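EI: anyone free to look at a 100-residue chain?
SC: sure, send it
EI:
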Amino acid sequence: MTLDKGLVEALEKDYTAAPITAQERTMLDYVVKLTKDATKVSKNDIEGLRKAGFDDRGILQIALIASWFNYINRVADALGVGRDQSQSFAAEGAEAALGE
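SC: here you go
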């Protein structure tokens, strides 16, 4: 984990231009592909991760963590979590369902 604000900003702006290692870039390329359309992930992507130095356990961890964040973000979006109250349409429905 880093507290390097410059690195965080560079990653947020364009991870492909950020000052990261080749291994980190390979991992992020895989995560982006997984996030955009997991059905497009292929054996070549997994082999690329292996060539970058990740073993099967590391690859599984990358896939699980990225997938979990994608899942949680989708649920939060569906429920309007993190939005201002005027946009939180699902919260109103949840309150009504709970009798609040």
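EI: The chain has one domain: 5-98.
SC: 👍
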